[in-house]
Amino acid sequence: MTASDAPSDASTAEALTGDSGLAAIALRGGAHAAVLDRHRLDFCCGGRRTLAEACDAAGIDVAQVLTELSSTVTARSALPEPPSDWNDRPLPEIIDHIVDGHHAYTRAAIARLGPLTEKVVARHGAGHPELLRVATAFFQLAADLAPHMAREENVLFPYIRALASPGARPAPPPFQTVRNPVSMMMMQHDRAAELLGEIRTASRDFATPDDACGSYTALYSGLRELRLDLLTHVSLENNVLFPRAIALEK
Prior knowledge:
Blueprint: H1 9-15, H2 22-26, H3 30-38, H4 51-58, H5 62-75, H6 91-124, H7 130-164, H8 179-202, H9 214-249
Helix pairs in contact: 1-5, 3-5, 6-7, 6-9, 7-8, 8-9
């Protein structure tokens, strides 16, 4: 998006209402996702709910959340605008963004945080038994995500690319319909969200204790960042890529 195409701060703020979908808000950019996550509003697996519906269910003042979201727009006005509505982007472009951005980030973060988790547990685990819960959930998440991302990149995404090719008539896939792998991927997304929730709960929302060393602080900071990126990544698949792929196959 060029500077001339980018919406103004005012128009962006005005576009946010109680009727805005959680996924659409989160996919505006990381700062928007962070506001929703801070209020524990599920823009990932529950991304199709409106902001008003989610706030009502959680007992949160929707006006306060809208104020924070609008303030976020103003605070980030000097930065490049996020991409235009992902629903307007070609499916191959979305896949490239997921693979080159989110998948690459996830693999790098897991490779970095794995040894750091082991180090912090070895040093602080006796005094902070909650670290074992954090580590157990993290390593299970890492084990689940490696084959999950590989299946997307090697099986599902190539078929979606073929569907999106102009005039293409891809051969019937071995999984019969795109709905079958999508259903499996979304079930695995639900499990990932559960593990991220366990990490957040066990770490007391990533709050470091008074005796935390630099490694302890770096671990929790890294886990917080991984959580937010992964939820945004899953939201883009669940709420944009997969529904559009199913509609296109029809």
